[in-house]
């Protein structure tokens, strides 16, 4: 899964932050984004790597391509790469085509399928195969329409109702950061004077390097607990509570044996 997460701050501070759009509210806030690469099998959700986007250099698409290139160099062979409509850009689609990695994404309604805008195809529920316009190769994809939403995959076996279910796995990154924020000392509301001041693991630091280092440690901790929960057949939160209560011992041997 490729996605980005907004880490909000209440002012620019020493990090020199710019305002970014918070898609959940539509407002612009100080902060930076993390472009995150995660892995899931539908049950476990493991963060693999992230790159920060501070809006003062580069683009999130460039960061996404850097993460995908890293995954390829590390030998990953995913069943598919999953992302939302914002990352369904020409550069990403062509990279995936060259790598031979299937994709699952949503498409904006103005994308052209066989020369016709998706919203121009008749009907509110359909499955159609065709080619997307604007790419240097003629990639064949299947598109599933459900109301005003369009889901797309280059994997023919998924051209059907199951594609919507697969796309919902994208929420895995949101779940990772929900666990990180709520259970590992993350963001919570705090009022200082008249200004809301976010608190938590990143908000204790005003230097970029320290904040990112703390985030990286938090993601490692999340991955360890998630893997332990899977081995014990528990969900994340009960496993975390038992660990804090001293009822579970963290077994690091699966990760240390190969060092």
Count up the helices: 7
The unreliable regions are 184-202
Strands across the major sheet, in which order? 5-6-11-10-9
Order of helices and strands: EEEEHEHEEEEEEHHEEHHH
Classify the beta-strand content into a percent band. Answer: 25-35%
Q: Major β-sheet, in short?
A: 5 strands, mixed
- CA-based gyration radius: 20 Å
Shape: globular
Describe what this molecule looks like in 3D.
With 259 residues, this protein is α+β, with helices and mostly antiparallel strands. 31% of the residues lie in helices and 26% in strands. It has 7 helices and 13 strands. The chain has helices spanning 60-73, 90-99, 162-167, 171-183, 208-231, 236-244, 253-256, and strands spanning 2-8, 18-21, 28-40, 45-53, 81-83, 103-107, 112-113, 116-117, 125-131, 140-146, 149-153, 191-192, 195-196. Helix 1 packs parallel to helix 2. It starts with a strand and ends with a helix. The model is unreliable at 184-202 (pLDDT under 50).
List the helices and strands and how they pair.
Blueprint: E1 2-8, E2 18-21, E3 28-40, E4 45-53, H1 60-73, E5 81-83, H2 90-99, E6 103-107, E7 112-113, E8 116-117, E9 125-131, E10 140-146, E11 149-153, H3 162-167, H4 171-183, E12 191-192, E13 195-196, H5 208-231, H6 236-244, H7 253-256
Parallel strand pairs: 5-6
Antiparallel strand pairs: 1-3, 2-3, 3-4, 6-11, 7-8, 9-10, 10-11, 12-13
Helix pairs in contact: 1-2, 5-6
């Amino acid at each position: 899964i490729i996605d980005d997460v907004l880490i909000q701050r209440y002012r620019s501070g020493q990090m020199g932050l710019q305002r970014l759009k918070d898609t959940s509210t539509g407002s612009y806030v100080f902060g930076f984004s993390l472009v995150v690469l995660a892995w899931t099998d539908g049950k476990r959700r493991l963060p693999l790597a992230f790159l920060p986007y501070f809006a003062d250099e580069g683009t999130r698409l460039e960061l996404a391509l850097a993460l995908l290139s890293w995954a390829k160099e590390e030998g990953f062979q995913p069943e598919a790469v999953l992302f939302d409509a914002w990352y369904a850009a020409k550069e990403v689609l062509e990279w995936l085509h060259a790598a031979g990695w299937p994709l699952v994404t949503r498409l904006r309604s103005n994308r052209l399928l066989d020369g016709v805008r998706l919203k121009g195809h008749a009907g509110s529920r359909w499955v159609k195969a065709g080619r997307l316009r604007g790419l240097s190769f003629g990639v064949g994809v299947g598109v599933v329409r459900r109301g005003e939403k369009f889901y797309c995959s280059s994997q023919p076996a998924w051209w059907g109702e199951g594609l919507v279910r697969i796309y919902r796995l994208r929420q895995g990154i949101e779940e990772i950061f929900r666990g990180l924020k709520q259970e590992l000392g993350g963001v919570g509301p705090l009022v200082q004077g008249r200004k809301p001041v976010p608190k938590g693991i990143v908000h204790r630091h005003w230097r970029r390097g320290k904040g990112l280092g703390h985030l990286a440690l938090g993601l490692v901790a999340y991955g360890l607990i998630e893997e332990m929960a899977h081995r014990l057949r528990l969900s994340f939160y009960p496993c975390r509570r038992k660990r804090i209560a001293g009822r579970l011992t963290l077994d690091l041997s699966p990760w240390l044996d190969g060092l």
